[in-house]
UniProtKB/TrEMBL annotation:
<dbReference type="GO" id="GO:0004439">
    <property type="term" value="F:phosphatidylinositol-4,5-bisphosphate 5-phosphatase activity"/>
</dbReference>
<dbReference type="InterPro" id="IPR041611">
    <property type="entry name" value="SKICH"/>
</dbReference>
<dbReference type="Pfam" id="PF22669">
    <property type="entry name" value="Exo_endo_phos2"/>
</dbReference>
<dbReference type="GO" id="GO:0046856">
    <property type="term" value="P:phosphatidylinositol dephosphorylation"/>
</dbReference>
<protein>
    <submittedName>
        <fullName>Inositol polyphosphate-5-phosphatase J</fullName>
    </submittedName>
</protein>
<dbReference type="Pfam" id="PF17751">
    <property type="entry name" value="SKICH"/>
</dbReference>
<feature type="domain" description="Inositol polyphosphate-related phosphatase">
    <location>
        <begin position="5"/>
        <end position="311"/>
    </location>
</feature>
<dbReference type="GO" id="GO:0005886">
    <property type="term" value="C:plasma membrane"/>
</dbReference>
<comment type="similarity">
    <text>Belongs to the inositol 1,4,5-trisphosphate 5-phosphatase type II family.</text>
</comment>
<dbReference type="InterPro" id="IPR046985">
    <property type="entry name" value="IP5"/>
</dbReference>
<dbReference type="GO" id="GO:0005737">
    <property type="term" value="C:cytoplasm"/>
</dbReference>
<dbReference type="GO" id="GO:0034485">
    <property type="term" value="F:phosphatidylinositol-3,4,5-trisphosphate 5-phosphatase activity"/>
</dbReference>
<dbReference type="InterPro" id="IPR000300">
    <property type="entry name" value="IPPc"/>
</dbReference>
<dbReference type="GO" id="GO:0001726">
    <property type="term" value="C:ruffle"/>
</dbReference>
<dbReference type="InterPro" id="IPR036691">
    <property type="entry name" value="Endo/exonu/phosph_ase_sf"/>
</dbReference>
Amino acid sequence: KELCDVTSLHLPGAAERPAWGRAGSAEVPIFLPRLQEVNCKINKRLKDALFTDQWSELFMDVLSPFHFVLVSTVRMQGVILLVFAKYYHLPFLQDIQTDCTRTGLGGYWGNKGGVSVRLSIFGHMVCFLNCHLPAHLEKAEQRKEDFATILHMQQFEGRAASGILDHDLVFWFGDLNFRIESLDIRFVKYAIDSNMLNQLWEKDQLNIAKSTWPVLTGFQEGPLNFPPTFKFDVGTNKYDSSAKKRKPAWTDRILWKIKSPSVGLGAGGCQPSRGILSVSQLCYCSHMEYTVSDHKPVAAIFAVQFASKADKPPVEIYVADEWNRPEQAVVKYKVAAGFHRSSWDWIGLYRVG
């Protein structure tokens, strides 16, 4: 809810872990900060509309030394999704589109809903969806309806993947607001203090929904081996001590879905045979050190093995290593035979480091 030091969210050591491409690659070319309940007062929104918003600037400052550049961003009031990539992977990122769906106040207000960025990565269609769903224990059914509305409303241009679930791979995350049912708050806190989190899993509304709601068929999630991330007294690591005494819950989640669910891999899964799109979750954790919100941030690292990989970009750009004079600032490029030209084609000049 306020700007803060986000350096630890880059997940130290992530640069040595495999992420996209074939198994054994050693880099993290995609980084996705996603935010909910960002300050969206009218004066802040006007400033962000006229200039680069503060959150984009903050993450650009943190990530540029690691050779990341901002590929795309989408905002709907207080819900933001940013997509960063290593600059040398930019030629392999295509068909970038964004969308947003308001579900607050019957679809007229963007305090709740979802924002998405979809793109082709090495020839595979991938969609990232950041949602802020309705709050409170009794609103589980409303959360399901809102998620179904977001999936139905968001449509993209092109035949490759027009809807969210048409993509080869979908990552769904955000403040999904699912709560823990039935159990008394005292037992929930006892289970947390005693590190018996498995006692709470079967009463988690999202875990229940994954096996009962058809709209969630195929979505996978790693084990919740970190304490519930909501609700804390701001400035502390103590759960809600106000008069409302809200029950702790895993409201902040990260899930994924492969278009053919049978070939997916969860944490600890066995290695797939070559030629199959697979996802392995290497890390799923919360960051207890952040106390500026009543939520704790949640982060994950994934290794994705694509069925195939486009090794040659459709457009190759040639520039001199160094420009000392204005007349040296010349870009030459060559397009592949099958490249589909468009009036939207462009060449970007990025500042790196």
